[in-house]
Specification:
The protein is about 45% helix and about 25% strand. By secondary structure, it is of the alpha+beta class. About 0% of the residues are buried.
Amino acid sequence: MDDLLSSQPLVDRDGEEHLHEDAIVGKKSIALYFSASWCKPCKEFTPRLVEMYNKKKAEGEDMEVGELAVRTSMIHDLG
């Protein structure tokens, strides 16, 4: 996991950058959510994920969710 996340800073919902060590070290659970703004199932699922995250955090769950957004330009670069 360290290798996967160490190359780029993590950006929170407020746009602030954090070192991956500060964001995930010591967390009991870490979820990676692959999403795309043009993906209808992603758009439908994201609010449910946010609701679950907020509920678990309120219950004291020691977790984080990281969204890895896919851009259409990334897909074109692969083809």
